[in-house]
Amino acid sequence: MKYVAKRNILLTLYIVLNVFFATIIRLTFSIPSEIIKIGSFEIAINSLRGILSSLQSITCILMVFVNYKIGIYFACVLSGFSLISSLIPVIKFNSLSSLPGAIGTIIYLIMLIIIYSFYKKASVSSLTDYVTGLENRRSYEIKISERLKNNKSFAVACIEIEDFKNINNLTGIQNEEIILKQISKKLSLVLGENDILFTISGQTFAILFNYASSAEEIKTKLKLFICPQTISTQNEKITVSLACGIIFVNEKKQSSITASQVLRNAESALLAANKESDDKIVVFDDKMENKEKQQKEAERLIYDSLNNDYFYLVYQPQYYTKDHKLRGFETLIRCRKLDGTIVSPADFIPAAEKTNLIMKIDDYVLKRAMEEFKPILTSINNSYTLSINVSAKTIGSDNFSEKVKTLLEECSFPAKNLEIEITEYSFAESMKTTINNILALREIGVQIALDDFGTGYTSIAQLIKLPINLLKIDKSLIDDIETSQTMRDMIDSVIYMGHIMNCEVISEGVENPNQIELLKEHKCDFIQGFVWGKPQSLKEIKELCNEDL
């Protein structure tokens, strides 16, 4: 808004200057003398007109630069008056003295039209998506901001092509444009007279409904288009599914929301539609708004913690089942605010996983853990394993294996003592990149553990192909091992399968001696849980390691 106000002030200034120059030029035609004296200086009238005409033309050009839409109008009108003034002596007195000025004005008018055309084309291009030809996110921001400023009620639907990345992987990137263009054409059929369809990103669209009376009205309009769509590409027909989140903005919300927040709230409803809704359409409500506030608060906490060192690490010991000897430690992150308040990871990790902040947390933990644990390997025992959890986003990022190699070198940390824990969900997120990172890490000696095994994202066929060192049995499978024969059989099968794959197996969440005895019977290799050790500070685990010698 400050930029717009400044631009308007400049435009007004240039208009005033232009009018001033045009007035002075007009007055010079009423001077009978060819020379005008200014103090002891003399200047030819024609020279003065030429200078003033040039200054006027420059202000006209500046008007178009400042605001090409309004500026071109004033510039043409004012330049037109100057052109007429220059031609009056030629027509009335048959004097050619002002003809050069008239020709100069015509040249400047042509320049103004060229500059205007360039700016108009550039402006249209900057507001248009290259692939679909629809208005883009920048245009969305402008249009929504205008409606918020004018206190107009409206609704926004955020629509996404589900699983678009995998569709591209399967059908080829050459079909991406075909799919996007056809989907945009189908969605345009739902538009009313004053509604606008935008391309927000590669796979996401937004519709601005200017006159929407109810949620049901919009849902009824969209249902036909949100159902699976068949797209004809160059070589085949592809079925794509869409999901939609809707937000209504009325007069009560105008002062407390921005265009970006409108879209973000619609995206929150879209996320709910992807996960929870059968008809793939969800309307944003107060519960989601509260979740959105909690998300923002958690994100702010993470930023503050990374910048002010509120994060710290604790380490939970892992033991050999047969003799209770120390195997190593799992690294766990904690947060202590400046006032001493301890914040549970459950309050910030889920929020971080919704954004790329989880990758920043992973980077922090990897570096900090290696730096803290390295002295233990050097001075106490070089055989302990340091296990570090890594999110699906991080293990699925293109440069992760190189990042780990760099950290190992910087910290002089032995690769064989590092164990990266990933979840089965990692393979659902980005399987190809994840597997490439795992293979690259295994080549340098880093161990790989599959955490929370049993959640169902990977098949046995996939597991056999993966270079996993360790399977971690999820706590949910351990809890009922004492009372359920079915669960004991399940645990026995998992451990047996792990050993067939040449993996060792650790059970986490073990809380009592009876569970330990049952896991011994089933030949579980390692134990982790409160029964033998809670998460401890760095100082405490150093003492524990000394006792283990």
Task: Write up this protein.
The protein has an eight-stranded mixed beta barrel, surrounded by five helices. It has 549 residues and is of the alpha/beta class. A hairpin with a 5-residue loop joins strand 11 and strand 12 (342-343). It is elongated, with a radius of gyration of 35 Å. It contains 20 helices and 18 strands. The model has no long low-confidence stretch (mean pLDDT 81).
**What about the largest sheet?**
8 strands, mixed, barrel
Shape: elongated
Distance between the termini: 68 Å
Q: Find the count of extended strands (DSSP E, 2+ residues).
A: 18
The stretches of 5 or more residues where confidence is low (pLDDT under 50) are none
As a percent range, the share of strand residues is 15-25%
Mean pLDDT: 81
Report the structural category. Answer: alpha/beta
How many helical elements? Answer: 20
Report the helical percentage.
Answer: 40-55%
Alpha-carbon Rg, integer:
35 Å
Name the strands of the widest sheet in spatial order.
Answer: 10-11-13-14-15-16-17-18
